Amino acid sequence: ATPVIVAIDGPAGTGKSSTSKAVAAQLGLSYLDTGAQYRAITWWMVTNGIDIDDPAAIAAAAGKPEIVSGTDPQGPTITVDGVDVAGPIRTQEVSSKVSAVSAVPEVRARITELQRSIAASAANGIVVEGRDIGTTVLPDAHLKIFLTASPEARAARRSGELKGADVHSTREALIKRDAADSSRKTSPLAKADDAVEVDTTELTLAQVIECVVTLVEEKR
Ligand code: C5P
């Protein structure tokens, strides 16, 4: 079989990561979390004292950190200059700054190139999740999925993950991040014209996984 490329996009809290990992594991495909890459470059900017409110400073530094993603869906990894950042990239500080960093065109160009080379070298195919995978990074993907869910469902899922974080402030932070991601000039969060939209509000994770697996199998 030719390597199948699956793009899964959508806002935060729609179940993208859980779905993408499970689908990849079930079908023997690689897995790439592109949000983790944007979080990793943001972590590096914060750690190195780059002013997040200065796009020119971010652009000038965009080429410096070396970001490496491990694509095993059973245990994806992410390092920056050899440092494991899987934990540090999930802090609220990084979450609140990642939209500003990922809006900078030089950052997107750098990370997009990395994503394309990872996808091209995945011998068995890959599931790539993010915001602009179907529209910009891999416009020729065999299958494009756009996951959505109500703001309430997304905030409830995310605050569950954050172990007790309050749902109201999680909801506000998610809405703010989605608005920033959807309104930026360079490859905003958007549904590709040829993407299949799946509203996960009323679905269990198992149902979403089954739905996507069926769609992938139809393409193979
Ligand atoms: O998926 P996750 O919520 O970890 O993504 C973190 C952030 O990374 C998003 O809010 C967005 O600003 C950025 N991102 C992006 N393009 C992608 C994936 C993530 O701009 N393909």
Automatic annotation (TrEMBL):
Which processes are annotated in GO (biological process)?
A: nucleobase-containing small molecule interconversion; pyrimidine nucleotide metabolic process
- Tell me which family the UniProt entry assigns to this protein: Belongs to the cytidylate kinase family. Type 1 subfamily.
Query: Which molecular-function annotation in GO is an example for this chain?
Result: ATP binding
Q: Which reactions appear under catalytic activity for this entry?
A: CMP + ATP = CDP + ADP; dCMP + ATP = dCDP + ADP
Q: Which GO terms describe its cellular component?
A: cytosol
Stretches for region Disordered: 173-193
Which InterPro entries does the entry mention?
Cytidylate_kin, Cytidylate_kinase_dom, P-loop_NTPase
* EC class name: transferase
Q: Which residues form a coiled coil?
A: none
Name of this chain's protein: Cytidylate kinase
Whether Nucleotide-binding counts among this entry's keywords is yes
Q: Which UniProt keywords apply?
A: ATP-binding, Cytoplasm, Kinase, Nucleotide-binding, Transferase
Question: What organism is the protein native to?
Answer: Streptomyces azureus
